[in-house]
Amino acid sequence: MMAGNVTAAGFVQELAQRLSSVNPFLASFMISFVSNSIPFMTVPYLALIAGYGALLNDNFERFLVGIGGGLGAAIGKMVVFYFGREFHRVLSEETRENLEFFAKAFQHGVFIAIFLFAALPLPDDVLYIPLGVAGYNPVLFFTAVALGKILLTLGAVYFGDIVGQAAAWLQVALGLGGGEEPNPVVTALLLLAASIAVTIMIIRMDWKRVVEVYNEYGPLAGLYEMGLQAVAALMPRRYGRSFVERGEALLERLRGEQQRRPVEG
After folding, report:
1. 12: number of CA atoms within 13 Å, CB side?
2. Is 20 within 8 Å of 56 (Cβ atoms)?
3. Does residue 146 contact residue 74 with C-beta atoms inside 8 Å?
4. What is the pLDDT of residues 167-210, one digit of tens each?
5. Coil, strand or helix: which one is 39?
6. CA-to-CA distance for 121 and 46, rounded, in angstroms?
7. Pick from 199, 82, 182, 192: which is nearest to 141 by CA?
8. Contact at 8 Å (CB) between 43 and 30?
9. CA dist., res. 136 & res. 144, Å (int)
10. In this structure, are residues 182 and 54 in contact, taking their beta carbons and an 8 Å threshold?
């Protein structure tokens, strides 16, 4: 298992090093476009973007990677969006109704839902294809996705920079040598571990509950619930359920106080 992880980590780091000689905007744009244009087949391009960010020393280049990656991802998602529109013609009536129901599940602020799915490492095609089927406004869709993906890509770039610094500290602490450049294997392994943790977190989150809270209380409450679910997903199930219940109870108390204030005034 360790040998496989080292091989995968080394591949990511080697590819990122090759890309470092290419224009950062163009490299990030192409990586993100290709990775996001295939429905339900998004490769873990953020790990590659993060590895790329670990090699950059200039903030302007990191900014270019964030903008290029965000725009490339947004255009790739437009392909997915129009795929949903064309796919609509060959779907059965029952399947079409199910997809449209999912698109309408986000009753409060579809634009915000699109932005959140784009800005977070979520399986966003499960929302974007139904929106294409439902005929959502493509201009609003692109705007929300572009803003979210730029934010997500910038986050990945700076996360990669932080991991690179952590790798440099770790290799000194473990006696693997010092120097300004972190060991590429150590850096890539840390990125791989972080990617695995995020994947596990996404799989274990109760997305149905997030959508329910989003519809009942609005976007801010939905984002709050998403945060609760993300933290709980990294805990043992018993403690995770208890954590979510306490968090939701706090939300209910805060809402009750807000509703009583006008009456008491």
Report:
1. 29
2. yes
3. yes
4. 777 766 666 655 555 556 666 667 667 767 776 777 788 877 88
5. coil
6. 9
7. 82
8. no
9. 12
10. yes
